[in-house]
Amino acid sequence: xxxxxxxxxxxxxxxxxxxxxxxxxxxxxxxxxxxxxxNVGLWGVASGIMVTVSVFGLADEGLAYASSGFPTLLxxxxxxxxxxxxxxxxxxxxxxxxxxxxHREDEHDREVSESAEIQANGVGRNDPPLEATAFxxxxxxxxxxxxxxxxxxxxxxGVAVGVSFAELGLEAGISVFGVSIPLLAVFMTVAISIHNVxxxxxxxxPMRAMGLSNWRMVGAAVFSSLPQxxxxxxxxxxxxxxxxxxxxxxxxxxxxxxxxxxxxxxPEALETGADLPNHGRYELLVGFVAGAVAMFPVLFx
Length: 301
Hints:
This protein is mostly helical. Helices cover 74% and strands 2% of the residues. The protein contains eleven helices and two strands. It is globular and about 55 Å long. The two termini are 29 Å apart.
């Protein structure tokens, strides 16, 4: 019974990170545009938090569980995390949900619309995310397909949450509603949640340009992270049943998170800040340092 309760706790934590993605669309309830400077800063904060928690939290825990000698499982996990993120990105890049002349016409119409939006408001620099266009068209089949794709893409983030709960019930932590939650799990849940906020904004911006409702933007943002609670539960169950593979699990999560920062967070931030002085590097750096400092308690956990 205790194991089932733990699964519920982990699922709720993963669900919190998914719901946090919807927060990225909330500003559009009050303003027409979202500051690029603020968005770049959020990417920086998310990056600083993720790197700090991954290196000083996940990787450190993995080393603690590794046997004496070379930490083979930990290193193998890091490499596996990097590979999964790279493979999922390639899958996303190769997906074409349109077909034939109609698809080319839709692409042309979208490019014209985005061009006009860029001239008018300076937004729409990037192609709309797949989930944004599917929500705009209310296409159920596309949404189901995209959910499958996003499951691959969001899995590493869910794994990071699930693995961080590995010591749930085994050690003292922070009491949440009478349940002792490992400190690392709290930090990781917060880290993934903060990371999801600018992702939600990135999804909402093109939907705003399409003239869609605020709540549909929130729905699309949350939808993009729905696989995370599932990934969290699967990862937690795995490390609970196979404790010997804990170093691999910690390494996998750490490798995936750091690689995501290097290949997605930072490039996304710099692209978002393309119109800012020095391409937003100052805002990115300030945000990164702020996020890292905020996570310093991990060093003393």
